[in-house]
Description:
With 410 residues, the chain is an alpha/beta fold. Helices cover 17% and strands 33% of the residues. Strands 1, 4, 5, 6, 7, 9, 10, 11, 12 and 13 form a 10-stranded mixed β-sheet that branches. The protein has an 8-stranded parallel β-sheet with strand order 15-18-21-24-27-30-34-37.
Amino acid sequence: MKAVILAAGKGERLRPLTDDRPKVILKVANRPIIEYVMENLYPFVDEFVIVVRYEKEKVIETLGDEFGGKPITYVDQRPGEGTAKAVESAREHVGDEEFIVANGDIYFEVEAIKELVSAFRREKADAALVLKHFEDLSHFGKVEVEEGRVIGILEKPGKVPGYANLGIYLFRPDIFEFIKETPLSERGEYEITDTINLMIQAGRKVAYAVYSGYWNDIGQPWNLLELNEYLLKTKLKHEIRGTVEEGATIIPPVEIGEGTVVRSGAYIIGPVKIGRNSRIGPNCFIRPYTSIGDNCHVGNAVEVKNSIIMDNSNAPHLNYVGDSIIGENTNLGAGTITANLRHDRGNIRVEIKGKLEDSGRHKLGAIIGHNVKIGINVSIYPGRKIGSYSRIGPGVVVDKNVPPRTMVLL
Ligand code: TTP
């Protein structure tokens, strides 16, 4: 059986982290999101077909042509927007067999696929999907079920309990006939959920599996922090492959990659993951749920908590990085501080596609893109975004979002 992974989206809600790359290759706990998808599909499939478009070369460069010895084929998404178009693009590559489809920007565990495959086979179904029960479906489509079958998928029904569609499906090749008939949705996309509704109307049997494990849909920046926390809390093994100087304190679990040096006076409370060839300390404080990538520098008098610092980035002197995401190849000047809490302790809101969205978090710091250079003594308000390739001059107070490739001076 083949797995089709949808990875052609622009990930606009995840700007600035997707300014120059697709979201599926963003690293959480130092690993591209799509690799978790592939790892959990792996036992059930013999080939991966990845549908790409936006910045596709970066997906190909990241993953190469095989994953754990199983081949990867890349397919360009056909013209048109939406998940139905993305699935249709894999038509020539799935053969006559049933195939699994998964969004490339979600996290799930292997049980989800086990349950999906067994529901499909047990019910001798034409298609199957994975569902999860939520108390509040405001952010999801609602899947209506009856007597072991899906009877319809409704657009966001509001604050009601019910089953959400997790973005993981099993189809037979006749799905392509229904995709051809799928109309454009109100938001201007061809949606696979509309295709499934057409199948149901035509009397096809759509089975479902209910998944109770951890799942996350990486749509908004803070979803990266949630997934990072989950992965570090549940999967991290204490393993020191680098060098830890005498006088450094490490409270497990902490993973430290080859070539990384932790200098005297560093105080690290796990779970914390640090990649390869990074320089940590002397005299810094790294608190739980922090992932630091390869070739990073976290230097003297720096505190980092609950944050993601991607590869080749530096918080080298006198910085506070709290509940923040720092993209690749970004540098914070000495004394640069992220604020992560409002004085009124209200939820931090973040402007996403021109609208202020409630992150649901009391604590959220900065979301900084890739290749950003920040001068000394810069203060960044909670939930503010700094676009990739931007430069912030010394002493600036970043109280508004900064677009990509922008110079901000006092
Ligand atoms: P979305 O998260 O709905 O879309 P997106 O990735 O473009 O993000 P944003 O809304 O922030 O711009 O996509 C769900 C999944 O489907 C995701 O894995 C990307 C994939 N997808 C495609 O492959 N092709 C498409 O045309 C679209 C819209 C999504």
